[in-house]
Amino acid sequence: MDLKTKALTRSLWVFHLSTGSCNNCDIEILDCLTPRYDVERFGIVLVGSIKHADVLLVSGIGTRKNADRIKRLYEQMPKPGFVVAIGACACSGGIFRDGYAMAGPISEIIPVDVWIPGCPPKPEAIIAGIVTLLGRLK
Amino acid sequence: MVSFLLWLLLSLVFFSLLGMLSGWVDRKITARIQWRVGPPWWQNFADLTKLTAKEVVVPVTAGPFFFLAPVMGVAAVAVTGAVVLSALSGTGGETDVIVIIYLLVIPSLALILAGSSSGNPLASVGIARELKLVLGYELPFILALLVPVVKTGTTRLSTIFHLLQGPAVLSFSTIVALLVALFALLGKLGWVPFDVSEAETEIASGLLIEYSGWLLALFKLMKWMLLATGITFLVFYFLGGLAGPLTAVVKYIVLLVVMVLIKNTNPRLRIDQAMKFFWGWLTAFSLTAILLAFLGW
After folding, report:
1. Domain range for residue B76?
2. Do B205 and A7 touch (CB under 8 A)?
3. In terms of Cα–Cα distance, which of B134, B115, B135 is closest to B125?
């Protein structure tokens, strides 16, 4: 593994995108930053702009109104960049799979690298998902 | 001329290393205050390496200053560091403190140029705030820098560095001026409570919103270097850092920790509150300090 990949694995900056989620997954994502889990130990921080990000964290079903914006955000993310779908909605549509606003699941809008199922996934599951992503990088 | 180029190279290497380590101290103390563990000491080096390897996304609205501004900012801080280092060594010739005042405003101007040439509406909100902030902190900063000038009767940097040592350091006016300059440095760095121009939760990184890859890395580097250069300058300018190398290191760490504590125990000020703070309280304090310096305190 070269230096650049190693640096990338130790400094993942995350942009959080909520597309029609019920806010439950979003709270669990924030839980990862709290003292109990503290992902900044591994260099993972939330950033405010997609241009700074290495990981696009998507929660929610991907609504029809948002589908175009999700694509644009994915294109704006500087590569190498990864997409993580968080929660049952983002992975498969969840209970909204037959809803009129459904344009997803996310993997039908943009290429997804890691799926983290759960309604909502526990912070441990989210961290395990990120570890899977890191493992794939190596 | 050649010797100044050597100082420039030394300043670039020394202050970027020191700045990244100081930036880590900031992140670690912040984490400890929030009862977290925090990142390892090489975190900022990893961040910088990663950013240089990333793709640069350039918006269609970007002008030429989109690429020039980060280089300009880093260059200005490196020159500041070189001026300080060469004045410390006593070979600085006739550089005086006015040069420092000019040089230390360039990083903020570089940020403003960068934001305005990126053409992003959120960045333009950041520009407006940063411009006001520059007007705000420059006045008390310049007034605070006048106190050692009054005390030593010269604006020559190396003379002030060498004269202002020992008991003269602990005078009342110097301490007040140092506190004012410390707040101005917080403003220059864009740290909480003066981070309105970057406010991540509100205008999504503001000025830097369109930046990615090595251009963003340069701005990060500029901030870290500004942190290290700024504190080093304050240590030698106000606190007589030439008294001894060990005490200079202790003073550096104390100033850094005080700044991090201010950062972590304050909310973000609105721009009008920040302006009132700078033009009201801090200006009053620095004027008092100048008066006290004239009276010999």
Report:
1. 2-295
2. no
3. B115
